[in-house]
Amino acid sequence: MITTYLLQSGKLLADANGSVQDALWVDLFDPTADEEHRVEEVLHVQIPTRAEMREVESSSNLYHEDHGTFVTVRAVVRTPDEQPRLSSITLVRTETMLVTVRYGSPKAFTEFVARVGKESSAITTSMSAMLCFLETLVDRDADILEEIGDALDPVSREIFSQNAGAMKSIAAADLGRVLKQIGQSGDLASRVRESLHSVGRAVPFLAAELHEDRALHVRLKTLGTDVQSLLEHDNFMQTQIQFLLDSNLGLISIQQNAIMKTLSVAAVVFLPPTLIGSIYGMNFEKMPELHWHLGYLYALGLMVLSAIGPLLYFRWKRWL
Fold this sequence. Notes:
This protein is of the alpha+beta class.
């Protein structure tokens, strides 16, 4: 699908007629071969295929070809029905036009559309439009990192609560659910990191084209600083996630050890009574206690004492 945006009265407005020749920005969403060919005829550049957009080497993501500059970045896509994933978006810039090629609808792109529709967007050239998109993508990544931090705060309080009653509730809680939540946060943070790295690689590549435009050069430099600071924050988040993951696994291990301890104590306590019951359950004719008047009560008492003895010993050793 082709969506064209024309510059009118300082704002970018969607053109329902799809006039590619006069557009400042053209959006190709899941384009067909005919739509790609239509844009290629106007720009005189080769639109990359979906497979080419997925390549990870820098030479395939950042390059100049014919009359255009090609920059491929990764954006985080989250939907309620599936796990977060990365979607590749290729920005093709010429002197007069910006073309975005995408096969997904990340929220960053929706925010960019809303942003360029404002009168204060100050988008007058294809380079300013490209820079605005990169800024919006970085802003969205920052928002996701904030969401991850907000989601981890209650998990941290739950795990490291100093209240004895709270600790008892943690011991009975579904630590598997907590483990899953921590894992999802770690997966999302790693995808945000890859998105930030894709923008970070594009910053020095584009710097060479902005040596004459002081204002855009300053914005690009600020963008690079933001990317570096967010990468450091993402690294901190990954460290925190790993710490919470290890702590949660430690609690699970403590729970399992407590269960095994209970089973071990039960086995030791019931082993002597079982032995006594087995001995007096034999059918030998010559048994001294066989004809005792109180033999039955004697055997029961002996089994009780043999069970209490290990418990008292464990208490004395402070094992219980």
